[in-house]
UniProtKB/TrEMBL annotation:
Pfam families registered for this protein in UniProt: DUF4160 (PF13711)
Name used for this protein in its record: DUF4160 domain-containing protein
InterPro entries linked: DUF4160
Source species of the chain: Salinivibrio sharmensis
């Protein structure tokens, strides 16, 4: 896998999640547990994303919470 583009959009639907894009991937994942929500991904690529998530979860939470507009239906991240 050459490069991953990680995106957190500001006006989203629940649950808090992030998007991963690359030449082979266009999928979204739950911030809490990295469960795949949408898209197709190989097992090998999913392992890479899960490892990345384990290292970057705090950054994802901060990014999600910092970018919520006041009228966002989801609001700030409230994880377990």
């Amino acid at each position: 896998m050459k490069s991953l583009k990680i995106e957190v959009y500001s006006n989203e639907h629940p649950p808090p999640h992030f998007h991963v894009k690359s030449p082979n991937i266009d999928a979204s994942f739950d911030i809490e547990n990295c469960e795949k929500l949408e898209g197709e991904i190989s097992g090998k690529d999913y392992k890479v994303i899960k490892f990345w998530h384990s290292e970057a979860k705090e950054l994802l939470i901060k990014s999600w919470s910092d970018t919520r507009p006041t009228n966002c239906i989801v609001g700030e991240y409230v994880g377990t």
